[in-house]
TrEMBL record, chains A, B, C:
Cellular component terms (Gene Ontology): membrane
Family annotation (Pfam families): Hexapep, LpxD
Homology family: Belongs to the transferase hexapeptide repeat family. LpxD subfamily.
Involved pathway(s): Bacterial outer membrane biogenesis; LPS lipid A biosynthesis
Gene that encodes it: lpxD
Keyword Transport: no
Its biological purpose: Catalyzes the N-acylation of UDP-3-O-acylglucosamine using 3-hydroxyacyl-ACP as the acyl donor. Is involved in the biosynthesis of lipid A, a phosphorylated glycolipid that anchors the lipopolysaccharide to the outer membrane of the cell.
Cited NCBIfam families: lipid_A_lpxD, PRK00892.1
Provenance organism: Roseicella aquatilis
GO BP, one annotated term: lipid A biosynthetic process
GO molecular function: N-acyltransferase activity; UDP-3-O-[(3R)-3-hydroxyacyl]-glucosamine N-acyltransferase activity
Residue numbers annotated as active site: H250 (proton acceptor)
Name of the protein: UDP-3-O-acylglucosamine N-acyltransferase
Length: 339, 339, 339
């Protein structure tokens, strides 16, 4: 079970409540108690597991878990004595049950005596500000937020309700919606990479006069960077999630629900429509438009617009089917057999 | 116009002063007043815009801006009532006008009471040291510098005049010239990646006994890392600019005016001559020499020296012309048509 | 010689002691004194150099160093008056001599008055806690550790003896062995990138209920990120070293002595066996197994298991021999000559 030093548990919980949280149906005694969650391979009779990938079907049949959240197709494979919690979305169901057993601690309202908070900053009700946090002039932080140790919030920044700014992140020149999460070391709002060459070989900075706007429920990974706009704003649409070590250049705009995986980078002024996925270490040049639900493959190098619902891979990128055909030919070249 | 919460404006300014700042000529009333800058698409009659890319020529013809900085070739396309500010370098001109309207605030001289500054550290006149900054023994910081919140300056570090060390950056084992900028989370001077394998399968650290030298006007992006030298120094030449999430390995040396774009990496002991450009996510192996004005393409993987004024792309990299020819052939392979 | 502002020297030392530290044999006066170390090209008669790469043999013949650590094959090439310190492992020998002349300063025991340390945290004997460090409830830090300025150690974290946590790093939900080093800005233990899509287009976070376990002598580079496990732990095996800006996803496990070079990334649940090397900017997808002593080339994109002792390159990756053959063919295509 989860290490109680790090993950205090709220259980036990009744099977009926667990099923309701999971949005799952079951047969059996709804009063049966469970203590926590665990993986199939290690769970015991007081723990709940899940299966969402047939790769682990064997682990399902051998599990010691007391209950397993799974799709109907696997329900009859759960061992005797184990309750199947049946749902069409077992991964989502398990996320909700895990959260039931290990609810995220609420912020402890109050401002640590060591926090430096500007006199005209406004802090919402129920918000926790941690040791050595710095909140600048005129900043406004919403209700029920968590601002961890050593976070720096610049002058004028606006932060909505129920946001979490984790240790060591910094945010300036920005407006955040509600339920925004900045993971440790995230850097929001700094000056982007804009400068004009002079005739005598120097670079003069182009003032970056825009902001960063993060929509509701946006999450930004550890040590990721989002530069503010040069004249307009850099905008991350509601619900979008960025993994760690991601770079977002100035004036990028994304729609809702975009996913940008670790170490990917999006150059300035590129636009992502809704629900675009950019896989790990991919790179997009500037001034592109990526259509809704497009999927950019890992390590792809995108230099042209990508239509909606199109999957691309490679550098320079091409539609996935073409890519694999080209790679198969290349592999034959490598194996010494002509195309 | 720029959000006044984040970008206080110094205007209004006279057209004649704006033109002088831009290095531009114009026809019209030099006393006409302007309030700020804005993009072509949204500017009003009291705002100044610019055009430096013919892609936006249509926006120029439709603009509501009161003045537009542009090249002679576009001067007759500015709408009636709009003043053309003509210069051969509109981008540079606009940078100077934007800075005129939104001058960077000067440091507020003084040391925040919470800053921990070693007794023998020397702080120059007019320098601002922010909350929770830490300045180590024997460090010397020049005049007119800005050291933001939570910056860590290690023992013995020397920093020239008019430098800006932004929130959360750290610098040790380093000597910085004047007008150096470290963006948030930049890491300067830490131990590089050097260790000796032992016969019994362990690694012993090779002491890294060099420093980092940053020339005048060098800028280092957010969360970028520059490791100190192992015996000699890691040197970034004057005026060079590094974007975010860049990695510079120990003993790298660059000439003046080099540009390293986001997430690129340069391995140890590689040398860049003057005015080299390394595009986003490119990687250079160690012990290379990259000639002056060479341009390394995005995501390139450079494993050999590159001559001066040469453009390379690909991984492994090759001259650009060869690269595109190879890609065209590869694309045909992918489309099912033989070379 | 090393800049004494940054690298106090402990010399002079006797040649006999230097040889013993290097594990080297020599002919000459063991009482001869040396002041420090320096590269071949700049060393003087009171300094010790080394040669471990025949590329520098010419520098050996011309050196002014008083002693050079080298293999037997080069011993007769040292100039007259220069002592050859002969060992089969000159690089390792030099590392030990450099450490003899510039021993790493021991922690200065004590807790800085500005450090915020939870009342129930346990700090071992001889440990140094620097300004503005924050140590959370129930954390346990071993003996002889160095915790630099502004480091954040989360609740319940366990840290072994002789660890070094450098400026601005953060660690939560983790257990560290002994002699672990976290370089500036390293991020350990934060929530990994796990979330479930909902039918109405939102993302719900999958609680990440695992930890990070770092074995003895693990080192993590500047601004690198290691996410905690989702149910099990993310584990880095003893002696492994990660360079800067590396991303380690949740549930990754490595064996001992793994090397991950700058800006590489390993996706969730991938397993590395012992002594795997992942070169700069490489990327590995999730749920892979990489066999012992495999070597992943720079910028490789690994999408399948790699057998032990296998070298791969390319994206998608292939055995090195095939890769170079394919690249040679591709280069011919680019040069306009058919395969």
């Amino acid at each position: 079970m989860a290490d109680p030093r790090f993950f205090p548990a709220s259980g036990p919980h009744r099977l009926a409540d667990i099923a309701r949280a999971a949005g799952a149906s079951f047969e059996g005694d709804g009063e049966r108690r469970f203590a926590g969650v665990a993986p199939l391979q290690s769970a015991g009779p007081e723990e709940v597991s899940f299966l969402d990938n047939r790769r682990y079907a064997e682990a399902l049949r051998a599990t010691g878990a007391g209950a397993v959240i799974c799709a109907q197709a696997f329900a009859e494979q759960v061992p005797a004595g184990c309750v199947a919690l049946v749902t069409a979305q077992p991964y989502l169901g398990f996320a909700r049950v895990a959260a039931l057993f290990h609810p995220r601690p609420a912020p402890v309202p109050g401002i640590h005596p060591t926090a430096v908070v500007a006199a005209d900053a406004v802090i919402g009700e129920g918000t926790e500000i941690g040791p050595y946090a710095v909140v600048g002039a005129g900043a406004r932080i919403g209700a029920g937020c968590l601002v961890e140790a050593q976070v720096t919030i610049g002058a004028g920044v606006e932060i909505g309700d129920h946001c979490r700014l984790l240790a060591h992140c910094s945010v300036s020149h920005a407006i955040l919606g509600s339920h925004v999460v900045l993971h440790p070391g995230a850097r929001i709002g700094q000056e982007g990479f804009g400068f004009a060459p002079t005739p005598d070989g120097r670079f003069e900075t182009m003032p970056q006069l825009g902001r960063v706007l993060l929509g509701d429920h946006v999450e930004v990974g550890a040590n990721s960077c989002i530069d503010r706009g040069s004249q307009g704003d850099t905008v991350i649409g509601p619900g979008s999630r960025l993994d760690n070590l991601v770079q977002i250049g100035h004036n990028v705009r994304t729609g809702r629900g975009c996913i940008v995986v670790g170490q990917a980078g999006i150059s300035g002024s590129t636009v992502l429509e809704d629900y675009v996925t950019v896989a790990a270490q991919a790179g997009l040049t500037g001034h592109l438009r990526i259509g809704a639900q497009a999927r950019i493959g890992a390590q792809a190098g995108v230099m042209n617009d990508v239509p909606a619902k199109t999957d691309v891979m490679g550098s320079p990128s091409m539609p996935v089917r073409e890519f694999w055909r080209a790679m198969a030919k290349l592999k034959k070249l490598g194996a010494g057999r002509e195309g």
